[in-house]
Design a protein that fits this description.
The protein has 159 residues and is α+β, with helices and mostly antiparallel strands. The protein is built from 5 helices and 8 strands, in the order H-H-H-E-H-E-E-E-E-H-E-E-E.
């Protein structure tokens, strides 16, 4: 795990943080202090988070990667990608206090029973596959017009 991951510091900046952590995984020299404001602006992140179209445009602007998108990914799809040395950028939905909320984060490693998730629940943690499925693979096909389908995954390979 040779990266010092970036942690989300508010309730709505998961998009820029996910993209910065992806770049750390690639090996790009990214820090919160020097890069957060750039990625926040690029993702059009505000108090409601990052709109899907701005997040996707920002993701596809990152150099040195090849991206394979997956709508409503299975646990097996994510596990297989990680076994092949790829990373997975996730967009998930979950029930908040009054409505559906969304979250972007990165998955970088696996063990037989766990995934290593970067920036979930304001920390970087090993999550059991059963817990991951229950929390992050909830299927909200019609999450919202602006946010699209959730869960959604972008499988990333370094080039």
């Amino acid at each position: 795990m040779g990266s010092r991951w970036i942690k989300q510091r508010d309730l709505h900046s998961c998009g820029p943080v996910a993209l910065m952590n992806l770049q750390k995984w690639i090996g790009h020299p990214v820090t919160y202090a020097s890069d957060f404001h750039y990625w926040k602006k690029k993702c059009k992140c505000n108090h409601d988070g990052s709109p899907l179209d701005a997040f996707v445009n920002s993701l596809y602007s990152i150099k040195d990667i090849k991206i394979s998108p997956r709508s409503i990914p299975s646990l097996e799809t994510i596990d297989s990608a990680l076994q092949q040395g790829k990373a997975v950028v996730m967009k998930s939905a979950f029930m908040g206090k009054k409505e559906l909320d969304g979250h972007y984060f990165l998955v970088t490693e696996r063990s037989p029973r766990h995934f290593f998730c970067v920036n979930t629940n304001f920390q970087h943690e090993w999550v059991s596959k059963a817990s991951f499925k229950a929390q992050w693979l909830q299927n909200y096909l019609y999450y919202c017009d602006e946010c699209g389908v959730a869960p959604y995954a972008w499988i990333v390979r370094k080039i």
